[in-house]
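ugh ok fine here u go
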Amino acid sequence: MTEEKLLLPAETYLKSGIHIGTKFRTKYMDPFIYKARSDGLSVLNLQKIDERIKIAANFLAQFESSEILIVSRRENGWKPVNAFKKATGIKVFAGRYPPGMMTNPQLDIYQEFKILLVTDSWPDRNAIMDAVRMGVPVIALCDTNNQSNNIDLVVPCNNKGKKSLGLFFWILAREYLLHKAVIKSPDEFTATVEEFTEE
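structure:
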């Protein structure tokens, strides 16, 4: 694995536990799994995590911040997604996704989006189903135990850990702003990983 090609030093990724999966693995996630540890936990391939984060950032950058929705039912994702919103201006929904937000124009909360990103395809399945109904592409963070039905882009990572989710959304915010030319170099991104991470 070559350091220059990764968005961050491998050590930074490893410290966050972004590569540590669960004991359960689905056939959908097999291509992203590097090995199983002696304690039974699956380990995700760091190179593939990094590649998919690059693809996700590039994909999101095709859209304006007002056209993107990020949903996180999982509580460990609330601080990271809110920090992401502060950094990028992208709309986020932390908590229980209200049904019909993307599909029912009669509702006050109705909004049109062109792309959806969810922190976990299982707890966020209602948002995914709404996106599918509306023909909106879905990016999902998937751990080794996730299914990938109705997902257009799988980003393999530990989608349960506070540090892992914090690091993911920190990198994504930086890369989105770089692609949008809001910042010219990674050093111009002044938000810290700590601002994205629960203690």
